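C-alpha cells
________________
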Amino acid sequence: MTKWHQQDIDLEISINISSYHLQTPAFFDQLKDALDNHPTIKSERLQLEILESSVLSDLKAVSDIIEKCQNILGVSVALDDFGTGYSSLTHIRDLSADVIKIDRTFVRDLLVDPSDYSIIEGIIGLSSAFNHKIIAEGVETDEHGLMLLIMGCDEAQGYGISRPLPANDLPHWLTGYKPNPKWFNYQQQSLSAKQKKRMLIELTTKHWYTNTLFLIEAGLQESKLAECHLGVWFNRLKSEKIFSEDWLNLLKEQHDLMLDLANALFLRKNAEDLTIEQLDDFKAAYHDLKAIIIAEDTHDIVSFSDHWVSAN
C-alpha cells in the first residue's frame, strides 16, 4: 500500500483473516503497530475480510474484535462468502461488517438457476436493510455484470474485471484499464422498474435458449430440461402488476410453446432423430418470444399465422 501510495495509487486493500487469527490476544496490537509503521496509509483503506463460516465458533468474540478494529483503528470489515454458512441471518444482524461479499457459487449460476437468482436478490435486500455495502464475487461475463447491476449490486470482483496480478504489475494494469462498455453504458441510463425487469427477462431467456440450443445441437441433452427463469417468474410478474396482463398472457403462451418444443427435442431417443424442421421451429419460437419482450415497450404487436411477432 505504501509503494502504491508513492505512485499516487489510492486503492482499498482487502486481506483475508481467519477467525482464529482474529481472536488471538496479540492481533489488535499487531495490526495497530503495522498501521503506525506506515503513517501515510489511510486506515480506512485497509479491509479485513473474514470468512463467514469461520465465525460460527464464537460470534460474540469475533463481533467484539471487529468493532474494536473499526472504532479505534478505522479499518473496515468484509464478511466473505456470504450465504454459505449456517447462520447467515445471525451474522448480518450481530456482526458490524461494512461489506457483504456474495459467494461466487451463487453468482456463477445466476443466469442458469432461478434459485440462485432468488438467493442473491435476498442477500441484496438484507444488505440494503442493514446498510451494508455489497460486492459480488466471481463475476466473469458481461451478462453476469449486467444482471447484478439491474438487481442493485454495483460492485464486483472476478475474471470479468481481471485475473489475479502480482502487486508490482498493478500500476501498469491500471494505466490500460477501460471500464466494461456494457456495464458503463447501463450505468449512464435512467431506467424504470419496468425496463429493468424487461432486461432481466431478456437476459435470462437468451441465456437459457443459447445453452439449450447448444446441448441439443451437440447431442448432449440431459434427461431433464433446465428451468427457465421466465417460467418460474410468471406468477410473481402478475402479482407485481408492472406489466399488463394481456402482455403477460401473450408472453406465457409463447414461452410455453418454446418450452414444449425444447422438451420434444430433449425427449428424442437419439441424436439421429433430430430434424431440421424441429430445430427451426424451436429457433423460431424463441425469436418470436424475444420479439414479444422487445415489443412490450411500444405495444406494437401483431398476430398472424398462429405466431406473434413484432411489427418492427
Observations:
- The CA atoms of residues 301 and 310 lie 5 Å apart.
- Confidence is low (pLDDT under 50) at residues 300-312.
- The two ends are 55 Å apart (CA to CA).
- The first helix runs from residue 2 to 6.
